[in-house]
Amino acid sequence: MKHLSLGVAFAALAAFAAGPAVAQAPAKPAAKVEAGPSCADCHDEAKIFASNPHSRGYAAAHKGATGNAVCETCHGDGKKHMDAGGDKSLIKTLHGGRATDTCQTCHKQSAERASFWNSVHASSEAVNCLSCHSVHKSGQGQKALLKSDPNQLCATCHQDVKASFTAMPYAHRLKDGVMSCVSCHDPHGRPVNHAVRQTRAGEPGCVSCHAEKKGPFVYPHVTGIVGSCQSCHRPHGSPYPHQLTRATVYTQCLECHSTLSTGTLGSQPPSFHNISLPRYQNCTTCHTAVHGSQRDPQLLK
């Protein structure tokens, strides 16, 4: 009881020393920041732009910045455009070949075999970045913001090639979806040899799939000597087996092994090869290593 009385006394003394209690003023609510107009207020494209590769790339380069700043990268400052109620003359729009200039501010990559500026699909009013790519949204989940499937895009201009793949009985399996035009062609490749892809070693892109034809051979045939794969084969389709350019094997071989046209290319058929006889008309019956041999200079094995 004695200890309790002392405690009450000390508490009363401390309250007296502290004086009357001061009521704390309630904290002022933080001033509400009014958000400015957003591109997404009017443009549906901007509402879904966060998932766009352009938006993600901008955010990565600018510490997570998003919103109007991303749109202004290509379209310029949009303040006057907004203040004027959406006057299109006060905002930069992308059309035709001039759009490529805007794309080039970021996509400057250029290499020995490919270039965004000097490719086979060089920027022009007829063909430019926007011919194949959609800036805001890809079509059907396509990569690289393509408007649609690569084969469909290529066919919009290259109708003759599409017809060949569709109509010819012997063709690469594009219509089965096994491969596409960009498997062999680089759409941003420089305008040499139809922008056909090459391996890192500079070999024809054909050997990327047909590895058994790659070599190097002790006794090579054609490729790298006097011609290419296209000397004998039609890559976009042929009415003949193996996509040859000729109906029969011996007529194919005589393209070079004859004095009729080239005169100096390849060895000539020996006299005992009477090619009027059916037994000699399929050259590859004996010359089985027609793409190159490691053992026989006549490509017999």
General description of the model:
By secondary structure, this protein is mainly α. It has eleven helices and two strands; from the N terminus they run ααααααααααβαβ. The protein has helices at residues 2-18, 44-47, 53-61, 68-75, 79-83, 98-104, 129-132, 150-155, 159-167, 181-184, 249-253; strands spanning 219-220, 292-293. It has a two-stranded antiparallel sheet. It is elongated, with a radius of gyration of 36 Å. The N and C termini lie far apart (117 Å). 11% of the residues are buried.
Characteristic key phrases:
mainly alpha, elongated, 301 residues, 1% strand, 26% helix, two-stranded antiparallel sheet, disordered N terminus, 11 helices
Q: Average the pLDDT over all residues and give the rounded result.
A: 83
Radius of gyration: 36 Å
Helix content: 25-40%
Strand order of the largest sheet: 1-2
Indicate the structural class: mainly alpha
Query: What general outline do the C-alpha atoms trace?
Result: elongated
Following the backbone from N to C, one meets helices and strands in this order, namely HHHHHHHHHHEHE
Q: Report the count of strand segments.
A: 2
Show unreliable segments: 1-22
Helix tally?
11
**Biggest sheet, open or closed, and with what strands and sense?**
2 strands, antiparallel
Strand content: under 5%
